[in-house]
Design brief:
The protein is 69% helix and 0% strand. By secondary structure, it is mostly helical. It has one domain.
Length: 67
């Protein structure tokens, strides 16, 4: 699976599984996903980031404000 240079800089792709996850994300993004499925895919994508905690905190802060 080819990964763009942008994604190589942004994400930690140290294992074969990371490339498998990335490939499945790209494939899913080609489909017309429901809103919930898009959120799930985006959350999974954040787990490949070098600082994966930052997006999780952002989501949690949003939920705390909501409730």
């Amino acid at each position: 699976m080819k990964v763009s240079l942008k994604d190589q800089k942004r994400y930690v792709l140290g294992e074969k599984r990371d490339y498998q996850i990335s490939a499945k994300i790209y494939k899913l993004e080609k489909y017309k996903l429901s809103s919930e499925d898009k959120k799930t895919v985006n959350l999974i994508r954040t787990q490949l980031e070098k600082d994966w905690r930052k997006p999780l905190l952002k989501i949690l802060n949003h939920l705390l404000k909501k409730y």
